[in-house]
Amino acid sequence: MSDSLQNRLFEQLDALVLIDSHSHINPNSPASTSLADLLGYHYYTELAHSSGMPRLSIEEAGISPREKVGRLFEHLGKIDNTVQWSWFEELSRELFGFEGDRIDQSNWESLYELADAKMNQENWDSDVLKKSNVAQVFLTNDFDDTLEGFDTQVYIPCLRTDDLVFHLSQPKVQARLQSSSGLQLSTLATLKQALDVLFVRFKKRGARACAISLPPWFSPKAYTDDCRTAQIALDDVMRSGLDASESNKKVISEWVFWKIAELADAHRLPFDLMIGVNRRVYPNGVYQGQDLYDSRVSLIQYAELFNAFPNLPFPISVLASVTNQELVDYAWIFPNVLTHGHWWYSNTPNYIRHDLRGRLEAIPRNKQLGYYSDAYKLEFILPKFRMYKRILAGVLAADFCIERCWSEERAVALGKQILRGNVEQVFSM
After folding, report:
1. 169 with 241: CB under 8 angstroms?
2. pLDDT at 1
């Protein structure tokens, strides 16, 4: 394959202004304030910990940002082979103006000063978005987020529903829902009404999706609004809180999830499903470095859901590449199932390339949402999307331009549709 062909395709894709369809950005503090914000990203802390750095050295209370960065650099040389480190090097060059061959213990302090100077510039967040060629960023908003204090034309609200589905037995979650909805959760009818209040508020503030992260064991189940079993479960959960029976917690999780799907359908909000994460597999790990996938998950668990809501788009992310073929096949058959990005442990070039090829070969082009950053700070959008665009350009060059004799123009049009066109269409931007 000609490197120049791949490079030409990449340059055209890289010029496209993008919409990042899933992130964890805080819109009231979207960019980093120090290098510690960047190296505190869980990829770096968990890799440093995995390579031998004690967790308490990373998470010791009261250490300054500079001290934290200095400690991390005692171990980060062990991860310079990883793609995650390449993200940090690329953003350091592109955003901070770093010019060295490598970043290590010998020069991290000069980079710290470069980054500090940039981050203290006025409108740094806007500059990062511009350099990243990104116009809009989808958020991950708690259900009781006020959705105030930020530009919803740039930072797009998304209703995150995990707490509602899996943690309603917690008194704090109950109090938050009652406060944000203005309703007492005494009956299934008032609970559904409270959920609807959230959807109405999010829609008014420009929300384009709702989303949830799902464990491998969860299987959606249909319930009627007035199901007696579900009312008994709600009574137990509201009365006993965390001491409610596990069976009743499970029933109320299933009931709430199904009602959220109904409301997403009624309010025309695509329902992002991120499937397969087991929480706290490694409880001694660093913050956000404790969760892993479970290959026992199957999308057959969601077949009833997909059949029940034929007009509701389900952009689906799977945690590991081992589930990708099943996702491809469900998107092949179900009109409402779409592939969405390359999530977490499948977000490395080897798995992206494999999974992308499988998707491009088998799924209608209008059903593929190519990539999202999943970033916590704006600076990571640029290198993560660049990684994907390089891989996409390579696959388009080899599998379409060379193997199928597509023109460059035709291949670029497919790439642009996957990168942005489908995001606009699915989320009605």
Report:
1. yes
2. 53
